[in-house]
From TrEMBL, chains A, B:
Protein known as: AMP-binding protein
PANTHER family the UniProt entry points to: LONG-CHAIN-FATTY-ACID--COA LIGASE, NONRIBOSOMAL PEPTIDE SYNTHASE PES1 (EUROFUNG)-RELATED
Pfam families: AMP-binding, AMP-binding_C
Annotated AMP-binding enzyme C-terminal domain residues: 413-483
Annotated spans, Disordered: 498-520
Organism: Rhodococcus jostii
Length: 520, 520
């Protein structure tokens, strides 16, 4: 196909058009696009020699490094898939990743993760260790291969997956999202429009490269012919040094990281004026070049690893009704009910999507893929609402659904209404079996210290925010809500507070007819 | 495929996300995205009722109109292809288009082209006439169909062609370039990065909609959720009125059109300050908002209908050595010799390309397609040069090649060198059979009035610009160079000045062995 474009093609074209420009900065290493193409050719041949074939996985366990970029493009050149693992995980979690991924090769950084090979090593899997001294096994290994283009490079398809990222484990275990060349490249152009990424753009990879949030900027910087500056792990002083030295225009920065940069540069020792960023307090605003565009005012939006990054941009509709703006111009978004029909404007439903930067599905999860990819649309497992001006509000994850009086009630929507009350610190909503309604809504609430809001006041508050049938029947005040990761531990809450009877779960017998209906 | 995206999908998503925003302005008509989606659903059903099937062509013969946009999207909804013809062509030329295209339906504007149906009408082809009064046959026809989505709308593929534009007839007859949804949409994002096209962008379609140069901005405006303001034909006063009234930020303007706008607004009657554009003299610069970005400084580049618009952007490498900058981030560019091998930096060769916004090929031209699509690359038929900094210079069309002493010599390169001499008004280069060298280079030159440059001076001038073997052996001074359209009539020049013996043409016998080699 003459319209194919892969990450390898991007690097080769950058070699032709700007071969002397710097693709990657990592410590004292400055790698031009010509060198990057050559290195990844050598590495692709090295992968081939280890038996890595199209569709095979290569696992990286280490911090940010120029090697992650090289492995990604080299994997792309042979049709393989790079998984950069979250190296902050426990040994047990990493063991799960290795068992799940069945990689053909593992590359690790002992300086970051210790000698995992001794504890996790499976001798059937080749393992290459990286070090920053002259005894770098990775360097010796890859440099020993020729830089001739890998034989299979002409048969790579833009639809092939090239990056695999494990996503948040809402359902108990992480799932590996397979992201194609096509998704990474097309998403790059969308973010380039928003963030103004062009030739000469310099981006500081200050976020982790096991997260799509960093990759989406890093790949866009490559696609547009810019320079990625690699920060091994976030360190505010080191980040300031690199921003000043490399004249970085962009960086992956969350509010807490900005606070650390402001503190590290309290004496204005570093010139951060090259950085274009949104406002975050007057000290910060004076250190940088303030971005007053809609994106600068709010770089928020709704995204998922599964959509290659951002699905909606608050900057597209920043003054609109929705909290999360409008969709990427390369994606379609619908808000659907459990039967896949569009819900009405203002109603909460599941966010479904399709388009050019959608992922290919989860690795080795046929059941989950069948559940998520239906009727031509990918179902995100997240809840949203279309506002009357067309903008979208993200409501929360669709972890489970309560059914009361035949109506669907999503806990996230009720929780959001509860959290809007000034006396509420945190909240979780469960369904309790109810012989009349099927289930009834129960709110588990932690009040702020010294707050005195009552059960009836909270029920009235929720009723003012959402449809009446969604309001809690009762409120239980507790000291703390048990969590699994970011989200409430609903199973434990059910046990503690008598929840159950969810649609699709083991039914709580209400009538014999209903039971036979539900188990048929 | 969950990653598919068509123009219909773009319009539907804009309906969901910004249904009340204006998609199109044409005279007093203001068509929102919701209305645009509904109208094109009706029109799609109307097309289906006329027997228009996937792959069929619909021909538009008329000036710019909201109907062209509606026909494009409606054609896309049923898998058909819209061809907006150059309505300035003669009746014979339009007859060629109809014969070549074999459209299933013709829509024309009698107010622009007269009643073509009487002179060209083929009663086997349904013909719909548009008018701006209450007796609009197009309106009556399309409005009589329901707005239910066309049945086949789910089976449209992003790779399907949707727009067919006839391209410059360098080889004697125009060829219809088939442009897919994928090419139009992906090109849109690239131009959006350069031109800063986002939600709320308002574009004045002041160029003709039978030309890719207008379409590339018009489609980008749609894709990004902006408003297209349709100008039926270019009229400077009307353009000023619309820019002021609609607060247009962009427009399709060539230097001659800018001069007319400046003249029409000599009394500063119109407020053109919404328009962001590059500099063009101080009067113009004060009327508009000056765009000082690289794109504002030079919106030039190298493009072709066949690449969906622009292949290289001068703004990407504006201070570089090449006259035409670097490639679109979604395309690859190589400069190749006749065997498809990369020529050296600084050498002239054919521009070959592939990537996301490449066209699908020419309609009904199997031989031309086979000649142009080879070894995984589309050969543009244009000559270019890769400079030492990676930037590209476009040299000229590769109409023919001279072979002298075993070396390849492209007339366009020698002509460009000749035109660099201040005494030269125009020039064409041919090859004359030569018993020693195969061919020798002959320059046909028109001098400027009262200029006196001699044959030997011109030969020396060229020798300073290009390799010595490319310099003319002789120069013939003439009063005028015969042309076919934009380019010299080389066949006539050969007859007039003894040209011949081109590689691949009927060979001029040099030795028996060479002849048998060339005809084998």
């Amino acid at each position: 196909m003459y319209s194919e474009l892969s990450l390898a093609d991007i690097v080769r074209e950058n070699r032709r058009g700007r071969g002397d420009m710097v693709a990657l900065v990592d410590g004292d290493e400055r790698i031009t696009y010509a060198e990057f193409d050559e290195r990844t050719d050598r590495l692709a041949n090295a992968l081939t020699s280890e038996g890595v074939l199209p569709g095979d996985r290569v696992l990286w366990i280490g911090a940010n490094s120029h090697r992650v970029f090289e492995l990604l493009v080299a994997a792309g050149k042979v049709g393989a898939i790079l998984c950069p693992a979250n190296w902050r995980q426990s040994a047990d979690e990493l063991r799960f990743v290795i068992d799940d991924l069945q990689p053909k090769l593992i590359v690790s950084e002992p300086k970051i993760v210790g000698d995992l090979h001794d504890s996790l090593g499976d001798d059937r899997i080749p393992w290459v260790r990286c070090s920053d001294d002259s005894d770098d096994e990775f360097q010796r290994w890859s440099a020993s291969f020729p830089s001739t283009p890998a034989p299979s490079s002409e048969s790579i398809h833009a639809e092939d997956p090239v990056l695999l990222l494990y996503t948040a484990a809402f359902d108990g275990r992480p799932n590996g999202a397979l992201i194609s060349h096509r998704a990474l490249i097309s998403h790059s152009l969308v973010i380039a429009v928003q963030r103004q990424i062009k030739e000469g753009f310099v981006f500081l990879d200050s976020g982790p490269l096991f997260h799509i949030g960093t990759w989406m900027f890093a790949v866009a910087t490559f696609v547009c012919g810019g320079t990625n500056v690699v920060l091994s792990q976030f360190d505010p002083r080191r980040a300031c040094e690199l921003i000043e030295r490399e004249r970085c225009q962009g960086a992956m920065l969350f509010p807490a990281m900005i606070d650390q940069l402001v503190a590290a540069n309290g004496d204005d020792r570093y010139d951060l004026s090259s950085l274009h960023f949104g406002p975050a307090g007057s000290t910060w605003n004076h250190m940088i070049t303030l971005d007053r565009s809609p994106w600068g005012r709010s770089n928020a939006g709704y995204g998922q690893t599964e959509v290659g990054g951002m699905l909606t941009y608050h900057a597209l509709g920043i003054d609109g009704l929705g909290t999360h703006g409008r969709s990427s111009p390369l994606m379609q978004v619908r808000i659907v009910d459990t039967d896949g029909r569009d819900v009405s404007t203002g109603e909460v439903g599941e966010i479904a999507t399709r388009g050019m930067h959608l992922f290919n599905g989860y690795f080795n999860r046929p059941d989950l893929n069948a559940a998520r990819f239906r009727d031509g649309w990918y179902h995100t497992g997240d809840l949203g609402r279309r506002e009357s001006d067309g903008t979208v509000s993200f409501v929360g994850p669709k972890l489970r659904m309560i059914k009361s009086g035949g109506e669907n009630i999503y806990p996230a929507e009720v929780e959001r209404a509860l959290l809007g009350h000034p006396d509420v610190d945190s909240a979780a909503v469960i369904g309790r079996p109810d012989s009349t309604w099927g289930q009834s809504v129960v709110a588990i609430v932690v009040r702020n210290a010294s707050a005195s809001v009552t059960e009836q006041e909270l029920i009235a508050h929720v009723r003012n925010q959402v449809a009446s049938y969604k309001k809690p029947k009762s409120v239980v005040f507790v000291e703390a809500i048990p969590r699994r990761g970011f989200v409430p531990d609903y199973d434990l809450l059910d046990i503690q507070h008598g929840g159950g009877g969810y649609p699709g779960s083991d039914p709580t017998p209400i009538t014999t007819a209903a039971t036979s209906e539900m188990t048929r």
